[in-house]
């Protein structure tokens, strides 16, 4: 009795989480344009999607921004985290605090402030304003992830490397970065996802010349969900699945090496 | 016990606590360090000679780790300097010092195999190929870890990690090896084994070792010389026998081994090496060449193994009456706690001999407590808060 209840509970949660996505995927292959009933299998929405230049361009833009923002935020975040943990300098606490605030602040506030800033200093709204904004809101997450990992280290590891003759550069290259690799990877993936699905900030800081996917989709579904969007969403779900599997595999390998000590 | 000789006459004669500066590898001169007003090291000086095994012994927080970190270069001294082979290295960063450290937490690189950990220092020095391999293997052989060369540290036991940490340090052939409580995380059995291994390794390598410990048995059994530290200062430097048999002050006497204290007053001096001391209701003669004035309060120190229990009043040695509080048989020795009529409770420790009638005492029985003449140490009484 207990057992079947538990099973029911689990099924309920899984259904709740995955039914909407499942419906979306099914509809991507559904001949029926409105997804009201199953009319048969088709791939024509995928071709329609590929034939929609606006949608494809927005996808390209989004991927470019996501890759650039994730890479930059991870690199800057990594250095910042190393700085915060290794050095004691004036203003360290304040800097860390402002990063936290940035993470807690509602997106809309961040969006408005960035817009005011870009307009104020005369940066045209488009690729650069978008990229800078995305780096900004990803940064707290990457700093947090890397800091957490750094604090998990034996703090004498760095001393040990110095003791054995490593210069600052060798220390970074041979000890710190290899140890941070899993954290850097998860920072990158997290930033990539955050950037890819951001609507609020992007809608404020981009211009008509640089449309991104979430905004494009948003404008397309205002007049009813188009099946091309279902097709695109299906591809994105597949992509995130691949990313999750990759990161899991990397974690597994780490465990095999007994590194999680 | 019969082989025990008092050392202090010989010691004061030629002062072996000092070693000529010329043959010293490491020379620490007048080192002081404070962290935000808290004095952690005060005027520390120490000469370490080639191949010497030194232990730094002291309670938690007395500055042992800080001293090692100053020698390794992780901290900068406020005052004083460190010389290695006669060269002032005080301003060199750790990577430029020919000194290596075995950290208490081992600090092995978790992303490298055992062999890669050991090779790390040599690779940075430019060793490659055959030569690198040979040296790494030799170091792994020295600590008997060759078979596990391809494992990752996360998969090793504490004792094995310890060995790798030692191999990783000694493979660089440092002039001095610093070990910060390397054995404190190991269980008693493994600890004993590692003490012997470390001693062997040190003899084989001929490198000077400075080992930090707060375990006095470890300090006494392993070292050529013991440095006893007492809040930020050196209380005494000496061979294990010197610090045990001729402690410099009451702090050292209490810190190392068990001790019985008999409070007394100096009456006068009988020649160069003998004092008359009033202890309780008795006047006793004690060996001492220390500058103690008549009327000065002193403590007569006797180790448990120096005390003798007798019923025989004929012996012409000083004694104190007491009654037996407790006896405990410990295999080779028999420990006795005696409540002296004059007040203090003392502990005696005798080798067990079943034929000796003295071993038939019962709890509560009255005994005379005497001691082997000449084995006592007289020290000026200090502030009792210590
Ligand atoms: N970097 C530091 N900043 C501030 N205080 C420090 C620092 N390092 C050590 N101390 C302080 O200096 C004192 C001595 O520390 P140290 O680690 O040298 O003691 P220890 O003798 O090694 O003790 P233990 O046996 O517990 O390891 C302690 O009171 C400690 O809190
Ligand atoms: Mg310490």
Characteristics:
heterodimer; A: 261 residues; mainly alpha; B: 386 residues; alpha+beta; OB fold (Dihydrolipoamide Acetyltransferase, E2P); 2 domains; six-stranded mixed β-sheet; 9 helices; disordered N terminus; binds adenosine-5'-triphosphate; binds magnesium ion
Query: CATH homologous superfamily of the largest domain in chain B - what is it?
Result: P-loop containing nucleotide triphosphate hydrolases
Low-confidence stretches of chain A: none
Instruction: Determine and state the CATH class of the largest domain in chain A.
Output: Mainly Alpha
The total of helices of chain A stands at: 11
CATH architecture of the largest domain in chain B: 3-Layer(aba) Sandwich
The N- to C-terminal Cα distance of chain B equals 30 Å
CATH homologous superfamily identity of the largest domain in chain A? MetI-like
Order of SSEs of chain B:
HEEEHEEEHHHEHEHEEHHEEEEEEEEEE
Gyration radius of chain B, in Å: 25 Å
Q: What integer value in Å does the Rg of chain A equal?
A: 22 Å
Secondary-structure arrangement, i.e. CATH architecture of the largest domain in chain A: Orthogonal Bundle
Major sheet size, sense and barrel closure of chain B: 6 strands, mixed
Mean pLDDT, all residues of chain A: 87
Ligands bound here? adenosine-5'-triphosphate, magnesium ion
Level of helix content of chain B?
A: 10-25%
Largest interface: A-B, 22 and 29 residues
Share of helical residues of chain A: over 70%
